Amino acid sequence: MDEAALLMQAREGDQRAFAEVVTAHRNHVWAVCLNICGNPHDAEDALQNTLVAAWQNLHKFRGEARFSTWLHRIAANNALTVVRKRKTNTQITDFSDPEESVQLADDDAAPRFDEHIALRDSLRDALSQLPAEFREAIVLREFGDLTYADIAVQQGVGIQTVKSRLNRARTQLRDILGDRMATH
Predict the structure, then answer these.
(1) What whole-number distance in Å separates Cα of residue 5 and Cα of residue 65?
(2) 153-161 — which CB contacts under 8 Å span 24+ positions?
(3) What are the angstrom distances between the C-alpha of 37 and each of 47, 86, 178, 180, 183?
(4) Rounded to an integer, what distance in angstroms lies between the CA atom of residue 119 and that of residue 112?
(5) Exposed / middle / buried, residue 62 (Cβ in 10 Å: 0-12, 13-18, 19+)
(6) pLDDT tens digit sequence for 17-66
(7) What is the rounded average pLDDT of the residues 77-103?
(8) Which of 160, 182, 168, 86 is nearest to 133 (CA)?
(9) Model-level pTM?
(10) Model confidence over 100-121: pLDDT tens digits?
């Protein structure tokens, strides 16, 4: 069944149809939550909040944008809310802490597994150092696979601002990761 038909059924209260639609986008939504939040625990909260909000507000989805864009917007908003709450209520997680749990790849036999983990940790740490609007833009583009126009709508800015934010985010990431890779 196509997405439009499933969405119609979901709007009528069919939870299975909603689950099927959301499952098709789950990995991208998870990536958005994880990379904005910076850790799996907060990302799980953001993902759960996203699914609940999407279900409760499905009647508000007008179909003017793709469903994936609408869902990514909800995910980014929920992830940013979790990050803001964490910053005001608790200390920021130190992603360079070796005691911090890291989501591992499913394939334990992957070559250079330790390098993969180190790179993932470095990327998470680098993302956490970006200003929130840069982090959101880069995560939506690179992990959420949203277009510049979709990101502009999500962030409430023009496309040129999105391009600028992405350029600055990439430059800052390159600088942060370049410094880190040079010291290891």
Answers:
(1) 16
(2) 153/65, 153/69, 153/73, 154/69, 154/72, 154/73, 154/76
(3) 10, 9, 22, 21, 26
(4) 11
(5) exposed
(6) 999 999 999 998 998 898 888 889 999 999 999 999 999 999 888 887 78
(7) 61
(8) 168
(9) 0.58
(10) 444 444 444 444 555 656 677 7
